[in-house]
Structure formats: C-alpha cells, structure tokens
Amino acid sequence: MTGDVRTDWTRAEIAALFDLPFDDLVFRAQTVHRAHHAAGEVQLCTLLSIKTGGCPEDCGYCSQSASADSGVKATKLMDPRAVLQMAAQAKDSGSQRFCMGAAWRNPKDRDMPAIIEMVKGVRQMGLETCMTLGMLTPSQAEMLAEAGLDYYNHNIDTSPERYDQVITTRTFADRLDTLENVRSAGINVCSGGIVGMGETRADRVGFVHALATLPRHPESVPVNALIPIKGTVLGNMLADTPLAKIDDIEFVRTVAVARITMPMSMVRLSAGRESMSDATQALCFMAGANSIFTGDKLLTSGNAGDDADAAMFARLGLRPMQGAEPMRKEKTCC
Ligand code: SAM
Ligand code: DTB
Ligand code: SF4
Fold first, then answer.
1. Beta strands in 112-196 (DSSP E)
2. What is the CA(259)–ligand 2 centre distance, in A?
3. Minimum CA distance residue for ligand 1 atom 23
4. Domain carrying residue 291
5. Domain count, the chain
6. Residue 107 CA: which ligand is closest?
7. Is the pTM of this model over 0.90?
8. What CATH number does the domain containing 99 carry?
C-alpha cells in the first residue's frame, strides 16, 4: 500500500482514510511518505506578489479581490528587474523555488513579455520557477513553457460542490481547463486549496478526491489554512463565528490524506503557519507535509519568518531540501 500511485480513488475510500484513528492515519501517511521522500527534508519556497490587488474575481477568502474591503492597495505589474532582485535575496536565504503571484483573472497578452523576462531571469539564477497568474489559454501556457517555467500554481481550492459558494466569477470547470492547458504544455502542476473556509468533512473529502483523481497528480499540492482577512467575505464570517476556525487535528488529517492519496507529490504546508504552533506544524510534517513557504510575507499576509522557521527546524531536526527535484516534463499533446 505504499508504492502505488493511483488516480482511481473513490470518495468512500478517501472518507474512510479521514475516519481512521488519528495515530493510524498519521502512521500510514508517514509510511507512504518515507517510501517516496527523504525523511526530515523540507522544501523551501519563497512567494512574491508581482501584481497586487484590484482583482476582478470575487474569491471569498482573498484580500486582493476588488470586491473585498481589505485595505490592500492595487499595484501595477512589477518591473522584472525588481523581481529578479527579490529572487536573488530568496536564493541567498536558501530558497529552492521562487513563486510569483499576480492578482489577475487571467494575464493579458500584453503582460506576457514581462512575465517571460521574469521566468527566464529567475531560472538563470538556478531557482525553480513557479507562476500563478489566474486562467491561462493553451497558447499562453505554451509561451510560459517555452520560457522555461517549471511550475504553474492554480488551486481548485475546495470541493466541486462548494466552489460556487466561495467564488461566483468563475467555475470549477474553468479551473480544470487551465490545469489541463498547463499539463498539455508540459509545465509541472501545483494545485491544492484551502481548509477552514467553513466547509464540511465531506467537502474536504471531495477536495482531495478532485486532486487525487486528476489524470496525473499535481507535482505540488499546497494545503492552505484559511487566513481570515478582515474585509473579505470569509474573514468577516469567521470573525463573527470564531468557533468556525478549523480544528488543528482536522487540518493534520487533511494533510495526511493528501499524502496517502498522492504519494509522489510535494505536499506544501502553505498559508496559515504564522498562527500555527510548532506542535501542529510538527504533526503536519509527520503526516507527510514536506514543503513550506519561507520568509515573513506570503502575498499580502504575514508568514512565520526565517528566524521562527530556523528555530522550528532546529527543534524538530528538519533539514532544508537541497537542489531541485527531478523535473517530469512531458508534453501530453503535440
Ligand atoms: N490570482 C491567482 C489565482 O487565483 O489563481 C493567483 C493568486 S491566489 C492569491 C493563489 C491562492 O492563494 C488561492 O487560490 C488560494 O488558495 C490562496 N489564498 C488566497 N487567499 C488566502 C487566504 N486568505 N488564506 C489562505 N489561502 C489563501
Ligand atoms: C497557495 O496555495 N498559497 C499561496 C500561493 N499558492 C500563491 C498564497 C497564499 C496567500 C495567503 C494570503 C495572502 O498572503 O494574501
Ligand atoms: Fe484574484 Fe486570485 Fe485573489 Fe481570486 S484568489 S481574488 S483570482 S488574486
């Protein structure tokens, strides 16, 4: 049960994993983890918001939506030279991957030359490149692949059933279309979602099921804990009902089920670490998380910071992953 990569998981099987006694679930996740990944190694990734705020989409969790009242100021797309400076700093602080995010529904063709310059420049520094720019057409995905983009992040965020309660300006199917365009262009896929948006256990089952039954598992699976941001629909809702915050053990369960169902993927403990104890994070690593965002900022929110992370790594005996993971670039169409 540790060697198989399966894309035929049923919801019932995934629900049964969630239902396991916690010890059994984490033991099984750690066993799968050790069959495919080096124990105690954690990949370090750095995020940069290359175009912040003013986004036309209405994602209920996001501070950058123009429909949120979060106080985030809209900026223009950064100059590629400024992006390269930030990437150089990330490399100096030991990061392996540089993830660039833009608050767009989709990139315009006029944005592509600057984006391509960023991809090429960051890659030349010896960092893995990741972009998250919203929906992509097949030709935009091809352009990014030609520029050498290693990963594209595009989250499914929640279960297919719950999607339209969180976002109304696009559909779950739109999300899958972009993932297919990215895959077909030969770019590695990074796709995950958010836990703690007031969803049910069944939604978490549906969320993992949607990822684990893609024709190929995403190479990276970010699992974010909702950062409840004031002025967003979900931030305001959770401020009114503080008990709705996700239970730490249920969060760890979600990480463990992602690890078991997608054994080869890098499972990233993403947003929300700033408010997690070292103990909860340790359980996430035991449950098979092996990637984090470093630094003191995500896109608009705070992150744990390098000092806190260095202390946690020392406390838990974790090691930063060295070198790039093997690329699996295969075009799936001509
Ligand atoms: N605009 C692009 C898109 O939506 O694909 C890229 C940027 S978007 C901010 C990337 C992801 O960040 C979202 O899909 C969501 O999973 C995550 N995210 C955004 N706001 C969050 C929050 N408040 N808490 C946790 N995760 C969040
Ligand atoms: C992902 O899954 N999480 C990152 C990255 N992909 C782009 C973004 C987290 C954003 C957290 C909220 C903020 O900083 O605005
Ligand atoms: Fe825009 Fe992405 Fe935020 Fe949605 S998650 S509002 S698409 S930046």
1. 128-132, 151-153, 188-190, 193-195
2. 20
3. 227
4. 11-317
5. 1
6. 1
7. yes
8. 3.20.20.70
